[in-house]
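Record 1 of the preview.
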Amino acid sequence: MARKSSGRRRRSRGPEVLGKPRGVIHPRVAKVGPEHFGIVSVDCAKARSKWMLADFYGNVFVPPTVVAHNRVEFEAAVRQVKEAIHRHGIEDLLVAVERTGRYHHPVQRAFAAGAFEVRTVHPFATKQFRLPASPGVKTDDVDLAAIHLAAVNGFALIEASLDESWRELQLLTRHRRDLVRKTSILCCQIKEHLDAAMPGYAACFPKLWEHPAALHLVWQFGSAEAMRRAGLIKMSVQLRRDGIRYQERTVERVVEWAQNAAPRDVAAEGHRRIAEALNGDREQKEQQIRGLEREIAAKLVRTPYVLLMSIPGVNVVSAAEFAGEMGPIGNYANARCITGRAGLYPSRYQSDAVDLKGSLVRCANRSLRYAILQIADNLIVCNHHFSLLAARWQQAGKDPRHTRVRVGLRFCRIAFQMVAGGQVFHHPCCRDRSYILDKLMTFHKEHGTPAPQVLTDLQAALPQIPRAEYAAEAVPLRKELEAIQEHRRRGPQPIGEILPLVLASLSVVQSGESGDQGPT
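->
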């Protein structure tokens, strides 16, 4: 069946380039001539690196040379390159540095300080250019030749630079993620030792860590026998004396467990002491996580990515992780650039009539992919529109992984339109959008943030929100203020002092003298 014309004129894409490299240098080479275009190849290591200078054809001007990672040798290497430029009549030059963890950063900064254009080559590209010529040999000199070939073929790329604020947001979100993983490991270890000391005790609580009395009783009594002797009354008295909130049915479950507890493991007291020590580490890490999340929120509200919180299912932490891995939205031409960098497309093998698609491509920014897929999981659970889509795809027999990726792709398209266009979430298939300031207020109440920081964050978020949305953002805040004023007898309410200032910034509440309360 013939495809109908859309009526749109296709844009001319220009000449195609094999391999789709993004660091094409051929126009610059044609301008000065291949013999006058120099490429400095650098193979990095931890304490020292190896570099060489050759022209576009591969004629070596400076043979492979070792440079230690210190100021004196970096300055000597830059001086040697400049002398070679004058000696061999090089009119244009770039430095191609292979990415090696964080070890390439000192080299990158040193050559950039010498007024050279510095580009990076992915190790995967180096490997592909090394294997055809030297399939069984990997040395520094062979890698330098491969780096040179990668740069010649356009695989030496210019990295988008991040200023300090973006880099700090990325570091904080990654540090928080690392602490969360370590905390999860600690929780598993605590349960393992607790089950050895008191078999079946953890099963008395649906969520062990959310019951303040659960672990407190373990540290105070230490064994099922001791709890059996203490009974309901003594354990309740102990909890009240220590100021631990509890419900009587919780203690009743513990007493019932103690009366029927299985024999404990050998060296049970040692297991209990280890569990107590690990729990102290867990509590300390949870405090660090809460502190980090407050810092992350303070940085998120100063970026346009705070608008993503208007999507139901996207909270402060997930929006901040996405923002930290993305960087400035100006680095992306469209949403496909986001999904391409994250590697959210399948690998493919095609030969003649064979055309197979596999799992997601291996070469990708894994941190960005993780942030997108985490948001996709949240949207499937918490967002009405995406949960219906997921249920429909499940009924159609789609793989859950396929559903997760499709939701991630749709989120990237929506996020690009919102962040690049400065818009809040107005999706035609969803019921309502969430309110950014209300989410921030809830977040800070849960984290016990001091009132001055709450006010600072709310005021910092206001310039990122379109003025046309100020009235909508004020609705939940006004309801919160009315509830606080109605129940003032419950004690001091710091938020009650913040809300009038925020509402005044939204131009919903005028000065107290005018008596204008704005739209309701």
